[in-house]
Amino acid sequence: MGHDIAVKRIYEPPSSSDGQRVLVDRIWPRGLSKEHATLTLWLKDIAPSDELRKWFGHEPARWAEFRRRYRAELDGNGEVVAQLHALLRDGKVTLLYGAHDEAHNNAVALAGYLLRHPRA
Question: InterPro entries recorded for this chain (predicted)?
Fold first, then answer.
């Protein structure tokens, strides 16, 4: 069963094609009101640990190692991963993030993880 997962910057306008909108950052995005976020869920606990997030610092050179370390954190966080899988059973889920880098962020890494681990 293929999952319908999208990744989108939270500052982009919500769309009817987003499906369920899940913020996957530990920290609330700067300058965004909760009303304008149009979230289904804020899943803080699926975000990388503060230690990992600070180490990564959105440095593309650290991307491969960041993904490896984040996968290890996700492997140990089965309950929260299962929450996302439950949402995916209901249809499309858009993983939302606040970072500027659209290619190297935790939502991209998380989407890849979910696609490689279709069931928790």
Answer: YeaO-like
